[in-house]
């Protein structure tokens, strides 16, 4: 009896140590003026102790890009997982020749705690945010900010900090969107129409954006064909008693849009990093009139100074809640949830909304 108890205790200790080595602590990095806690952590009930935690994280991340082939191998020299990626050069492009459609591109990155970095950047990995973090889709009441939080937000939004902050590592996105230079990426940018406006987006996100448009039209009770011309859009009924409150709200949102701008090769304001507009995967839905409401933190900072983040939620322009939800269902995040709010802005990141 005593002998069995000793063996049981020893086995329990060994198993505890083994599990501890494979259960991943949350990565935390500063971003969007708040903690961006990585969602790469594996839920306790899903932990597979037969493989290293980082390999599980890599699989969970790459699941959001199923068309990209990858192979992950542990590199003993640098003590990290090396990931070799292979993807089609052109996607969703029927007009390309068979030879062009067969073109493949390759890249090699290291996991670097969820940052996907080239080998030469591994020494700087702590300068970058993780790629997959908790995307919070809850609006925060500015009245709840503490003095300490306000000081951090002001510091984060300062020009000095935005210049020096490493931000999102763009290497993985440069690869999948062929965005290393303007001439290269522009061979992947497609002119299309979205909610009645002409815009240009990356070929990779075109199917998702078309699904968003179809779902918005369905919720509004109109056909996609209605958005084909200004004359048809001018005839959209926004006031009939037969319409639901949601239909009226969405129709009013559509007819009052001024522009839907996506691709624009540029850097993020006050930083040295490319905007996701440079990839053609971010789109700004700007209304014709703001009626004094705030829409973008940078513009509000010019108007209100250091108290720009205190603008009440009710005094900010925003798309209908159902429209935001439709975008999220198709892999887009909304900039209105950021503390440095950008309420007209949607950005394609299936690796974020897929883990909400």
Question: How would you characterize this protein structure?
Answer:
With 356 residues, this protein is α+β, with helices and mostly antiparallel strands. The chain is built from 13 helices and eleven strands. Strand 6 and strand 7 form a beta hairpin. Residues 1-45 have low confidence and may be disordered.
Descriptive key words:
3-stranded antiparallel sheet, 356 residues, alpha+beta, 32% helix, 17% strand
**Helical element count?**
13
Beta-strand content: 15-25%
How would you state the average pLDDT, rounded?
Answer: 86
What structural class should be given to the helix and strand makeup?
alpha+beta
From the N-terminal CA to the C-terminal CA, the straight-line distance is: 49 Å
- Secondary-structure element string: HEEHEEHEHHHHEEHHHEEHHEEH
Task: Please give the number of β-strands.
Answer: 11
Helix fraction bin:
25-40%
The backbone outline, from C-alpha atoms, is globular
Order of strands across the main sheet: 8-9-11-10
- Stretches where pLDDT falls below 50 for ≥5 residues? 1-45
Radius of gyration: 23 Å
Biggest β-sheet description: 4 strands, antiparallel
